[in-house]
UniProtKB/TrEMBL annotation, chain A:
Cofactor binding note from Swiss-Prot or TrEMBL: Binds 2 [4Fe-4S] clusters per subunit.
Sorted UniProt keywords: 4Fe-4S, Cell inner membrane, Cell membrane, Electron transport, Iron, Iron-sulfur, Membrane, Metal-binding, Repeat, Translocase, Transport
Protein's UniProt keywords contain 4Fe-4S: yes
Bilayer topology annotation: Peripheral membrane protein
Function field: Part of a membrane-bound complex that couples electron transfer with translocation of ions across the membrane.
InterPro entries linked to this entry: 4Fe4S_Fe-S-bd, 4Fe4S_Fe_S_CS, Ion_transpt_RnfC/RsxC, Nuo51_FMN-bd, Nuo51_FMN-bd_sf, RnfC_N, Soluble_ligand-bd
Subcellular location, record wording: Cell inner membrane
The protein, known as: Ion-translocating oxidoreductase complex subunit C
Subunit structure: The complex is composed of six subunits: RnfA, RnfB, RnfC, RnfD, RnfE and RnfG.
PANTHER family: ION-TRANSLOCATING OXIDOREDUCTASE COMPLEX SUBUNIT C
Biological source species: Vogesella oryzagri
Cofactor: [4Fe-4S] cluster
Domain 4Fe-4S ferredoxin-type residues, every copy: 380-410, 417-449
EC identifiers of the protein: 7.-.-.-
TrEMBL record, chain B:
Keyword Electron transport: no
The name this protein goes by in its record: RnfABCDGE type electron transport complex subunit D
Pfam families on file: NQR2_RnfD_RnfE
Transmembrane regions listed in the UniProt entry: 7-28, 34-52, 64-80
Domain of life, source organism: Bacteria
Keywords in alphabetical order: Flavoprotein, FMN, Membrane, Phosphoprotein, Translocase, Transmembrane, Transmembrane helix, Transport
Length: 462, 314
């Protein structure tokens, strides 16, 4: 019996050490499989908006502006001014590789001109539709052939599917030519304030699981894993329940409660233990990563023949009715705010506080990547402070999930020193903003890296 | 973790707060001279910082807002020998803030620790003017009242003679191994641990410093008790937790910091064993500061950026 005691001690000692914060800090280089270091703990503020079910908005009398382009692909309008369109009717199409655009409600096309997407840099061509309030669906559009990976990819482009997590990468391109062995579904929602994926998983878990099972069967994937941050117990429970009832083997796993747990390399690391080296695509390590809302939209498209015409938008902050709304694409942000009875005249923040941005144009419209609106952002987000010199406290080094050294990267950015930037691996930066968040000197670390990637990087190369 | 300061001024004020226990113990044993010297040091640091910011045409309010001058003043007060004349404090502050800090481009740009550079210049140039403490253990300034101290600091009266001081205080020359009557080291230790708990400083440097000092001391023929006792002498704890841990002048990663701490410990012990000056810590820290870029280079080999995310070879 005595021999078991040392064994027990040796088993428990690493655990005991890992529980002491000071020692853990000292020995944080000890890594397990699937573990990633760094990241920051953020206050979630999820309770502001996750209590009420997803609502829909009355659309009569609204004028919607549906953007036609996504990233580099831009669809050509295929409707005329004055034409009546039904919800889901194609209004912009193009050759293969183009994400098609669809009317997000029934009404009459009033103009084809530029609009300003809420989270975009530039103005984009858009089809303006005066809603008639009937919200009448066009006939469902189902895939015409047997589903293969290639036909599913083409179908996803025609149904206007893009990644709804934030980047807006066309889903069809992601599906094209992929032969993954694992499907990862990102339900992390690690950004504070946002609860759109949380509510979606709670209320429509069955559809998500059905869509995941469909994807798994089309791509002959054996392993489907859904990663969720543990601060969404109801969503986890709902998905568990749905997954148990499904034929497909779907695992629901919790992610570490650290921002950015939903970042692509970190999600892959957490759920599979595989390392997504900088510059590599998930397909190269045999995984396919899709946001939970994207999977849901894909399921709607394939199983119900409904294109992507709406998305769930979180409304949080100083509003009388916080919560999530199912907003049609192209609805003006102002009407969403009016429906939620926004208070105060402060600025509106689009998306989460870490990756999002301030609403630049009051006439902006909801786009496919607008995940949330934070009203009276000044009251909830830390005020911008004047930056001070770097005191080399190394907090950014500790926070960086990609094990970079933001302080050295910033120095190289300021000197426009391209070899140093390469040596410090600017390309590995995922622009999560954890470094800027923890910097006591309030240095614009992430913004500098983003800028450097665009100017120094591309400028020298071209 | 809400207690963790998240601004530069917050970090600086936390350091000042963490200095308090040691300073209070120090003042309890050495009398009001400790507080008076701290007051002068802080005042002169404030004036010098304002002057430097003005000369560099920086925004004075924004520049003073980082509170680094307050930390510099508090550290300088403890680093300089007690009863230093005012002009000597001013000179040390000029070197620390004027030359080392603002001369190299302001906060965060200096390679040398400002306080140690100021102390080093004073110690080398004006060695004769310093009061060598009559004994390691004697709180010899406790008896002095405030007017006498002020007269001494402003040099209005001739300097006190050491003999007068020695006869005024009961010295304990022969009782080195008695329980240490000087307790301020425990205050600095507590303050340093507080800083580590609040994640303002890191423990690697002090731990490495103490390990190397103790080991070298034992290698030189002292026993463990004496070696550990040497850590409580001459502001060792203060320097370990408050001077060497300055993030600006210490390396950027763990391996580097451990090597940095080892270097300081070794040089301190060598100066203490064989050196002429009493300020082994000061020179050790300055020497290690000079090595920081090399240590960073070395540490990068062990710990390249993006470690753990390299492409895996199938």
């Amino acid at each position: 019996m005595t021999s078991t005691i040392p064994a027990r001690i040796t088993q428990q000692l690493p655990f005991a050490i890992s529980q002491l914060p000071l020692l853990r800090q000292l020995f944080n280089s000890v890594q397990q499989r699937g573990h990633w270091r760094g990241g920051v703990r953020l206050r979630g503020h999820k309770q502001l908006s996750n209590h009420t079910p997803i609502r829909s908005l009355p659309l009569a009398g609204q004028e919607l502006a549906i953007p036609l382009s996504h990233g580099r692909s831009s669809a050509q309008p295929c409707v005329q001014v004055g034409q009546r369109v039904c919800k889901g009717e194609v209004i912009g199409d193009g050759p293969a590789g183009t994400v098609w655009a669809h009317a997000s409600t029934s009404g009459v096309v009033t103009a084809i001109k530029e609009c300003c997407p809420a989270d975009g840099d530039q103005r984009q061509a858009a089809v303006y539709i005066a809603a008639d309030g009937l919200d009448e669906w066009a006939p469902a559009c189902r895939p015409t052939t047997v589903l293969t990976p290639a036909s599913l990819a083409a179908f996803a482009m025609q149904m206007g599917l893009v990644g709804l997590g934030g980047a807006g990468f066309p889903t069809g391109l992601k599906l094209q030519g992929a032969s993954p062995d694992t499907l990862l579904i990102n339900g992390a929602e690690c950004e504070p304030f946002l609860t759109c994926d949380d509510r979606l998983m709670r209320e429509r878990a069955g559809e998500i699981v059905a869509a995941a099972a469909l994807l798994a069967s089309v791509f002959a994937i054996g392993r489907v894993r859904i990663g969720i941050e543990p601060n969404k117990p109801q969503a986890i429970a709902a998905l568990w329940q749905a997954a148990v009832g499904s034929d497909c083997h779907i695992e629901v796993l919790t992610l570490p409660l650290r921002y950015p747990a939903g970042g692509q390399p970190l999600l892959i690391k957490s759920l599979t233990g595989r390392t997504l080296a900088p510059g590599k695509l998930p397909a190269e390590v045999g995984v396919m990563v899709l946001n939970v809302a994207t999977v849901y939209a894909l399921g709607r498209a394939v199983l119900h023949g409904r294109p992507l015409v709406s998305r769930i938008v979180t409304i949080s902050g100083a509003v009388a009715q916080p919560g999530n709304v199912e907003a049609p694409i192209g609805l003006p942000v102002a009407s969403v705010l009016a429906a939620a009875q926004a208070q105060g005249d402060g600025s509106v923040h689009i998306g989460g506080p870490m990756m999002g941005r301030k609403l630049a144009d009051a006439r902006a419209v909801i786009s496919k990547t607008t995940s949330g609106l934070l009203v009276q952002a000044e009251a909830f987000l830390p005020a911008a402070q004047a930056s001070r010199p770097c005191i080399r406290c190394n907090r950014c080094v500790d926070a960086c999930p990609m094990s970079l050294r933001p302080l050295h990267l910033l120095a190289a950015c300021q000197q426009q020193d391209r070899p140093a930037l390469q040596q410090e691996q600017l390309g590995a930066c995922i622009e999560c903003g954890a470094c800027s968040h923890v910097c006591p000197s309030k240095l614009p670390l992430r913004d500098s890296f983003r800028q450097a990637k665009r100017t120094i990087w591309l400028g020298v190369r071209s | 973790m809400t207690l963790r300061p998240n601004s530069v001024s917050g970090i600086m004020l936390t350091v000042v707060l963490a200095l308090l226990p040691g300073t209070v113990l120090h003042a309890w044993q050495f009398g009001p001279v400790v507080w008076l010297q701290a007051g002068w040091c802080i005042l002169l640091a404030l004036l010098m910082e304002t002057l430097c910011l003005h000369l560099r045409r920086e925004d004075i309010r924004h520049g003073l807002g980082d509170m680094s001058w307050l930390v510099c003043g508090c550290l300088m007060a403890r680093a300089l020998p007690l009863l230093s004349p005012l002009w000597l404090i001013a000179l040390a502050t000029l070197v620390a803030l004027g030359l080392v800090k603002h001369g190299s481009g302001g906060l965060g740009k200096n390679r040398l620790n400002p306080v140690m550079a100021g102390l080093g210049v004073v110690a080398v140039c004006f060695y004769q003017l310093q009061y060598p403490a009559p004994g390691f253990q004697a709180p010899w300034t406790l008896q002095l009242d405030i007017p006498t101290i002020l007269q001494q600091q402003l040099q209005l009266v001739p300097r006190l003679q050491l003999d007068a001081l020695s006869s005024a205080t009961p010295l304990a020359h022969e009782r080195l191994d008695a329980p240490a009557p000087l307790l301020s080291w425990s205050g600095y230790l507590a303050g340093g641990l507080l800083l580590a708990l609040l994640r303002v400083s890191r423990l690697e440097i002090p731990l490495a410093m103490m390990c190397s000092s103790v080991l070298l001391c034992m290698a030189a023929g002292h026993n463990l008790q004496e070696s550990l006792h040497s850590l409580t002498l001459g502001g060792y704890m203060f320097a370990a937790f408050f001077i060497a841990t300055d993030p600006v002048t210490s390396p950027d990663c763990k391996v580097g910091r451990i090597l940095f701490g080892l270097t300081i410990g070794v040089i301190t012990e060598l100066v203490r064993e064989f050196g002429l000056y009493a300020d082994g810590l000061c020179f050790a820290v300055l020497a290690a500061n000079m090595l920081v870029p090399q240590l960073n280079q070395l540490a990068r080999k062990f710990n390249p950026p993006g470690q753990g995310w390299q492409p895996t070879r199938e």
